[in-house]
Amino acid sequence: MAHAPSGTNYLNATKGWKSWLFTLDHKRIGIMYLLSVCIAFGLGGIFALLLRLELLHPGQMLFTAKQYNQLFTLHGAVMVFLFIIPSIPASLGNFILPIQLGAKDVAFPRLNLASLYIYIFGASFCLYSIFSGAVDTGWTFYTPYSTATDTSVISMTLGAFILGFSSILTGLNFIVTIHKLRPKGMTWFRMPLFLWAMYATSVIQVLATPVLAITLLLLILEKTIHVGIFNPALGGDPVLFQHFFWFYSHPAVYIMILPAMGIMSELVTTFCKKNIFGYKYVAFSSIAIAIISFLVWGHHLFVSGQSEYASMLFSLLTFLVAIPSAIKVFNWLVTMYKGSISFEAPFLYFLSFMFLFSIGGFTGIFLGTLSIDVHLHDTYFVVAHFHYVMMGGTVIAFLGGLHYWWPKMFGKMYSEFWARISCLLIFIGFNAVFFTQFILGAKGMPRRYYNYLDQFQPLHAFSTYGTWVLGTGFLIMAVYLIHSLRKGAPAPDNPWGGLTLEWKTTSPPPVENFLVTPEITHDPYDYERAGL
Amino acid sequence: MENKAESLMGHGSFWLPRSASTVSDNTDLLYNVIMWGSTLLFIAIIAVGIYFVIKYRRTSANMKAEKHVIHNTTLELSWTIIPLILVMIIFVWGYKDYLKLSIPPADSMVINVTGKKWFWQFNYPKEGKNMLNEVVVPQGRPVKLVMTSEDVIHSFYVPNFRVKKDVVPNRYSIVWFEAKDTGVFQVFCTEYCGDGHSGMMATLRVLSQSDYDKWLVESELSEDIPLDQLGKKLFETKACVTCHSVDGSAKVGPTWKGLFGHHVDLANGQSVEADENYLRESMVAPNAKVVKGFAPVMPTYAGLLKDKEIAALIEYIKTLK
Amino acid sequence: MKDNIPVIEHHVAHHFDTAEQEFSAAKLGMWLFLAQEILFFSGVFVAYVIFRYLYPDAFLEGGKHLSWQLGALNTVFLIASSFTMVMGVRSAQVNKRKASINYLIATFMFALGFMCVKAIEYSQKIEHGYLPARWFFGEGASDKLHIFFGVYFAATGLHGLHVLVGMGLIAWLIYRSIKGEFHSEYYTPLEMVGLYWHLVDLVWIFLFPLLYLVG
Question: Taking the model in full, what pTM does it have?
Answer without folding.
Answer: 0.92
